[in-house]
């Protein structure tokens, strides 16, 4: 079967996801992407992604209309739910706390900061349960929560002579199979902020993938659709 432009783009998207997750290095990504854009048939496209299963999800066949997997951590959600909590709370008085990196959030997590501050980073965290409640209480202090764009987050806290709300949001949509996290509590003469953004490493991988894709498109344009030089002179009669 002949491959369409939409099918070539779908394979290119799967390759971009793979390099963002660290499954492919940039050289492999560059080679496969160039091959994908030059492919004429399904038989040429399918081998490019046969060894790239997304954890917890099924890679759509080339001819399917199903969307490509979401970026970065979104493909890993089923593997990140379950297990014993490594932390169920945090406390700061005239000081600070942080929970970040690889850790498992308890299904009920309580954070308290008085005349101090704390950081809760969920971007690389695992979750004890699919539904998590994070209670943030601050008195003349501050708590900052960072979540990936694909996580389902519901902010319901109250600010009293302070602030309790959402801050910056990077591009991305919550994934249907991601955990649901409700952030509640109150801030008295202090603040609780919730930002949605990716890690620096993931942003760097996505940037490198886009640059490699632009380079492959540029080479494809110079070579022309048949592999020859584009824009060549006319043959003399």
Question: Could you give the order of the helices and strands?
Answer: HHHEEEEEEEEEEEEH
Low-confidence stretches: 54-72, 232-237
Total E-strand runs: 12
Tell the overall outline. elongated
> What fraction strand?
25-35%
Number of helices: 4
Helix content: 10-25%
Oligomer: single chain
Distance between the termini: 37 Å
Structural class given helices, strands, pairing? alpha/beta
Rg of Cα set: 23 Å
**Average pLDDT level:** 81
Tell me about the largest β-sheet.
Answer: 7 strands, parallel
Protein name: DUF1707 domain-containing protein
Organism: Streptomyces anulatus
InterPro entries: DUF1707_SHOCT-like
Which features characterize this protein?
alpha/beta, five-stranded parallel sheet, 12 strands, disordered C terminus
Give the SSE map.
Layout: H1 5-20, H2 26-38, H3 42-45, E1 87-93, E2 96-99, E3 104-114, E4 117-121, E5 126-127, E6 131-139, E7 142-147, E8 152-155, E9 158-160, E10 163-169, E11 180-188, E12 191-196, H4 200-223
Parallel strand pairs: 1-3, 2-4, 3-5, 3-6, 4-7, 6-11, 7-12, 8-11, 9-11, 10-12
Helix pairs in contact: 1-2, 1-4, 2-4
Concise synopsis of the structure shown:
Residues 197-237 are annotated as: Disordered. The chain is built from 4 helices and 12 strands; from the N terminus they run αααββββββββββββα.
Structure description:
With 237 residues, the chain is of the alpha/beta class. Helix content is 24%, strand content 31%. The chain is built from 4 helices and 12 strands, in the order H-H-H-E-E-E-E-E-E-E-E-E-E-E-E-H. It has helices at residues 5-20, 26-38, 42-45, 200-223; strands spanning 87-93, 96-99, 104-114, 117-121, 126-127, 131-139, 142-147, 152-155, 158-160, 163-169, 180-188, 191-196. The strands form 2 sheets. Strands 1, 3, 5, 6, 8, 9 and 11 form a 7-stranded parallel sheet that branches. Strands 2-4-7-12-10 form a 5-stranded parallel sheet, with no helix packed on it. Helix 2 (26-38) runs parallel beside helix 4. It is elongated. Residues 54-72 and 232-237 have low confidence and may be disordered. Residues 1-53 form the DUF1707 domain. Residues 197-207 have a biased composition (Basic residues).
């Amino acid at each position: 079967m002949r491959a369409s432009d939409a099918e070539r783009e779908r394979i290119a998207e799967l390759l971009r996801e793979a390099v963002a997750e660290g499954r492919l290095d940039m050289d492999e990504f560059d080679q496969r992407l160039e091959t994908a854009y030059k492919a004429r048939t399904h038989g040429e496209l399918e081998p490019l992604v046969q060894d790239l299963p997304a954890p917890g999800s099924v890679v759509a066949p080339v001819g399917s209309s199903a969307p490509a997997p979401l970026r970065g951590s979104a493909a890993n959600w089923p593997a990140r739910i379950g297990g014993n909590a490594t932390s169920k709370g945090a406390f700061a008085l005239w000081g600070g706390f942080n929970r970040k990196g690889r850790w498992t959030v308890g299904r009920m997590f309580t954070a308290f900061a008085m005349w101090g501050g704390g950081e809760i980073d969920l971007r690389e965290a695992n979750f004890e349960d699919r539904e998590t409640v994070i209670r943030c209480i601050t008195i003349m202090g501050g708590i900052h929560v960072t979540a990936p764009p694909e996580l389902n987050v519901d902010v319901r806290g109250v600010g009293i002579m302070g602030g309790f709300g959402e801050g910056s949001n990077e591009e991305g949509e919550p994934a249907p199979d991601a955990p649901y996290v409700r952030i509640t509590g109150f801030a008295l003469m202090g603040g609780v902020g919730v930002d949605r953004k990716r890690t620096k490493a993931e942003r760097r991988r996505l940037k490198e993938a886009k640059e490699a894709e632009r380079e492959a498109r540029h080479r494809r344009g110079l070579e022309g659709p048949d592999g020859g030089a584009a824009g060549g002179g006319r043959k003399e009669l």
